[in-house]
């Protein structure tokens, strides 16, 4: 042992290892973001005087002492590049920097060496790039207890969270209650330090039980729980029967570890297919699996495995008995192919038991979800609308720009729609010339795009996609609040809701529009709202706008450009066969609509007329042989320098009617011009693409 005051390195560090560790140590000392970490009193007593001096050449983390705690830092250099056009950007990420399952075992092997200290927190060095106002995220590990179960997530989590992980040493026998108290002391300390920030508890399996227990005991603290395959179903798992077998048949341990390892490595067939598609390395070899099994045996020797199973048993019983006390915002991630626990059924049960809970299902994944390929925890949290830096989510300041991976996935999700409709984008230059691209769109915000809402909002996502591709501009969609609410007051969770949140959708409100324009954003607004998107038969392209100029004066406050636009094509895609009026004549559908509208958030309750008639329902359309979508963006209308002028109600109303008239003109222009498009029908487009390549841009009518 060596005294902390002298050095944290032993005198026998190898020559090959020493330069790397010295560099890491000084990087850590110079990093002001690696803050003090709260730990138990027992830990402070244990670590205040000495640290382990035995270090091996392969060790990739160092120990750091602060006034309150000892912290380990795993070291992986992460660089990210961000490009921007105006006020929006798409952050780039390198898939080569994403870690693998092998990294988990390598880091776990290093973490457990010469580890005789009590449970404690460590902060990965690669998670040190977050901003000062980032919320705290505490990772509570599963049965392994090592604390590196987020290793494949560290690169992205570290940019938006202050990440701490709990490490439970192999030989530690702290009781469940003792571990809960350790976590509890930490969150209370951090809550007192930053009372207006949420604290995130990411619990995997056993760690999910810890998170639920702490949340039940501290309902007054703003906690956000993200639970991956919670072990609250332990009594129904295959591990339950393992306890007695391990006690009387020690040889059973190898089979148990093999079962755990198979849950970590995932479905071999799925992995092989994914790797072929993505062009990456093959699944783990027999030699790799043998190495993993050896490391797993070191992490969970027979006595430790028995202890952890007993810990699981008591943790599950404790958490289940206190579910009624959990008030925290909760997101449950459950796998469809969990071989260790019935996670799918358990996720659905917990969703019913917990009052403020959402779930996300992962059909083809196993128990150790966060270690599997293609699972991005940041994207999941963003999609659920769970990321916030304060007591309430701020859809402007809390928004996290898309990564290239997220944008590519978004494009993949709407590819069929885009391929079938082959959108045509027209814009207007400053001299009034119409061009067949988006070069007439300003780069700098704020810009407000005001237009007609097609049936079911079919035009919105292709527009967002093309703006990103052609102009590197992210258009923020203003949508009905029901797409952002969970359970009561909102729509059932489905993938489209997550996509809307990820690409920057914002609930419709005057406050949110104010924030967007003040931040120089590009904003898509449909004054007709849901009345247009859920219109009746024969109402295609009819505007249902309020009488008052809702957006004009706010635009002039920030000097925003207003761009009227028309989008045409819904009548070439589908035809409504059952609209609202038809459905209200069918008793079963009528009762469903009435029940839904009792729960959904209502807008424009202070006005009358058709625009206020926005009952939520789902029109029943039948598809047509696909036609084509056309977008026409008119000449930008300047409001900069007109703030005083547009305070006059008559003048602002005049501009409002001008914008409305321009939208109607854009729609009329497209409806007329599309008659001359030789590629309006899908068959000529397919022939053209078969000749010129399926990624080729199909021509349109002459301008």
From TrEMBL:
It comes from the Eukaryota. CDD domains: LPLAT_MGAT-like (cd07987). GO terms for molecular function: diacylglycerol O-acyltransferase activity. SUPFAM superfamilies: alpha/beta-Hydrolases (SSF53474). GO terms for cellular component: membrane. Residues 187-373 form the AB hydrolase-1 domain. Signal peptide: none annotated. The keyword Amino-acid biosynthesis does not apply. GO terms for biological process: triglyceride biosynthetic process. InterPro entries: AB_hydrolase_1, AB_hydrolase_fold, DAGAT. Keywords: Acyltransferase, Transferase. Belongs to the diacylglycerol acyltransferase family. This is AB hydrolase-1 domain-containing protein. It comes from Citrus sinensis.
